[in-house]
Amino acid sequence: MLYLNDAEWVKHGIANDLHRFFVLLWDELLHPETPDTWQVRTSNVRSALGELLDAVHVAAHHEPYRYNIIVLLAEIRAMLQMDPVISRHFPFVVDFLPKIDSAENLPKDLAEIRRQVNVVLGHLRTLRDVLLQQLRLLLVEGNPKNKTDVYKLAMALAVEWVTCGYSVPHLRTGMAVLFDSTEKDFGKRFDAYVSRCDGSHRDFNCRFSVSWPPDVQIDDGIKLEIGRPERALTDHESDFYGQSTERDVFLEFGVQARDVFSARRIGEERIASIFAVLNLYLVQRRFDIKGRYALIWENDQPAVAIPIERSRQSRLQNVEEAGRRVNELLQLRNRLDREDIDQIMSSLQYHRLAMTASTDESCLVNLWIALECLARRGKGSIIETICTQIAPTVAVGNLRKQVTTVRSVFVVRLSFTLSP
Predict the structure, then answer these.
(1) Ranges of H-type helices in 298-359
(2) d(CA 15, CA 328)
(3) What is the pLDDT of residue 311?
(4) How far is CA 57 from the centre of its chain?
(5) pLDDT recorded at residue 87
(6) Which residues pair with 203 in a beta bridge?
(7) How far apart are CA 266 and CA 259, in angstroms?
(8) Is there a smaller number of Cβ atoms within 10 Å at the N or the C end of the chain?
(9) What percent of the chain has pLDDT over 90?
(10) Max alpha carbon distance in the chain (Å)?
């Protein structure tokens, strides 16, 4: 995270206190080491309304799912109370939402709810423009008394961009323009940053090194190549091909995405679905994305090597003292009954599948099955057992992680503040 002294701020041409606050805040929202509570959220009112539409569609054909409509409506109302733009510029949204607080009060025909939600979404189509306008206005004014409003607007803007498909790495790498000292007007620096997120879908080509059965050919708009090219390679291509041999297999296909990092993620999800089909008929073989990078390029632009995420959970990618923790867990087997060991190991296998999943859906399903493995001998329904027994222990572990992270941040900031 950023820890700049006054001389460094002046060097970057950022003298105004509010501008410094915004830059620090934006870095904090997007930094992977920021505690979870202070990172950019992953949903807002518009994304929740879209989820509500999906729930209405499912509930129309599946009666037990109707309860989710009530849960989502309550969540949306809570979001509306915190949203800095909707309460001021779209106050009618609260009145337009269905006034239903229990599943018993839901109408048998859900078409009216669908119509109301679509009306609200239609009125919110200019939400992003209003967000940008209000945030830019405060930054241009540069009044330090507006820090609270800038915080709320910055969080809302970051969530808006993330929910429409922009990746956090893309939002973070673009911050260089905010430090461009050749541009004296901070408002224009902000405009240059915003121009990187114009809302358009772009066409990317993706290339991945994969383990692949030699006797299987594939079409589906995917090009399968064997061996690295025999021409001179760029630096990024050299990183991608690395130690590959003439027999390595590469898959190449096109995707539509908001940015290069999102293109890599979408490409990984597409390959994961292909591997799922392969494993349906080739059960004994293991298929995986190989190497450390994916090669992504747009039209005639040079290809860029983007690091592969082996886990969607960044906090688990570099766990300290892994050896000691593994040994402690393995030694636990000597102190438990066989049935308990089987129960724990079954849960850990599903947990591993969740942590290495390429899609959020696969991650969620495998995490839930892992919890079911731990709670399968409880009384009553499996859901009730999980909610009453598993959740408290998970919460305690997460609380410890959060407190430890917050302490580390405070120590670093305090030492930086007190340094000469």
Answers:
(1) 322-332, 338-355
(2) 52
(3) 55
(4) 25
(5) 80
(6) 256
(7) 11
(8) C
(9) 32
(10) 69
Tokens at 406, concatenated: 């917050």
Distance in angstroms (rounded) separating the CA atoms of residues 247 and 214:
10
Q: At 329, which amino acid appears?
A: L
pLDDT digits 0-9 by tens, 236-267: 999 998 867 778 889 999 999 999 999 999 99
Residue 322: Cβ within 10 Å count: 10
Q: What is the pLDDT of residue 158?
A: 92
How confident is the model over 182-199, as pLDDT tens digits? Answer: 999 999 999 999 999 988
Q: Strands (DSSP E) along 131-272, which ranges?
A: 202-210, 223-226, 249-257
Report the distance separating Cα 170 and Cα 180, nearest Å: 18
Lowest mean pLDDT, pick from 42-46, 67-71, 316-320: 316-320
Taking phi over 0 as left and psi of -120 to 50 as alpha, with beta for the rest, 145 belongs to alpha
CA distance 49 to 120: 8
Token pair recorded at residue 381: 């329904």
Of 152, 197, 201, 149, nearest to 173 by C-alpha is 197
